[in-house]
Amino acid sequence: MAKKLLMIVAVAGLMSFIWLNAVNSADETQKPNNLQVQIDAVKAAIPKFAVPMREVGDRFQNMYFAAQGGNWGLAAYMSKYMNSAMNPAKLTKPAEYPAWAGFYNNTFAKVNEAITAQDFKSFEKTYSDAINRCNACHGVMGYGFIKVIKQNTASDLGVEYNLKSKATDVPK
Ligand code: HEC
Question: Which of 20, 59, 109, 165 could be cross-linked to 82 through a Cys-Cys bond (beta carbons 3.0 to 4.6 Å apart)?
């Protein structure tokens, strides 16, 4: 009798286990927006503005010392990747990203022209104008308390800023 009872309990347990699994897997595959949920989760894990802005800040500071040292290739490189650093925001902040693109393609074009021309005087002027524009955007976006200032040294000290190079040395 006890043996039979044990058998019934075991079979019932097994059946409910199978049933629960079936329900669970049906749940996973039949959710119509399951893929969307996963895409949203991946998006939520990709940086928005704050993380890439740290890189923007560092590359922006480094650029100055590269231009000053006549390392125009390094200055051009810093500018190129300062812009690329913001790429995740195309996906995570589609409404705000165009403001960055507008800044880089318009205001910053003048800095890039000075780099291409390897003209430090013009670089210095356009660079300091750009600082004001960085801060104007911070203000507009509600981050007026983030005020960019020009550092006395580069952010990264592990590269030679005085190595002479041409702006065109950056591989495409
Ligand atoms: C399109 C508007 C916009 C422009 C242009 C812009 N920023 Fe920002 N920046 C932001 C926003 C928004 C934040 C705050 C990030 C957040 O909380 O999402 C920020 C934050 C920062 C930070 C703080 C990052 C941190 O968390 O430590 C630095 C540094 C920075 N920006 C540097 C710059 C520099 C340098 C420039 C110009 C070359 C610039 N930004 C141009 C919008 C902008």
Answer: 59
Give the Å distances, CA to CA, from 25 to 13, 16, 20, 38. Answer: 18, 14, 9, 16
Candidate from 54, 55, 56, 156 with most ligand 1 atoms within 8 A of CB, to mutate: 56
Instruction: Tell me what pLDDT residue 110 has.
Output: 98
For residues 103-139, b (16+ Cβ closer than 10 Å) or e, as one string? bbeebbebbbebbeebebeebeebbeebeeebbebbe
Per-residue confidence (pLDDT) for residue 52, from 0 to 100? 98
User: Which tens digits make up the pLDDT trace of 70-114?
Assistant: 999 999 999 999 999 999 999 999 999 999 999 999 999 999 999
pTM of the model: 0.84
CA of 137 to the centre of ligand 1 (A): 8
- Ligand 1 environment, Cβ below 6 A: 48-50, 53-54, 56-57, 60, 99-100, 103, 130, 134, 137-138, 141, 143, 146, 148
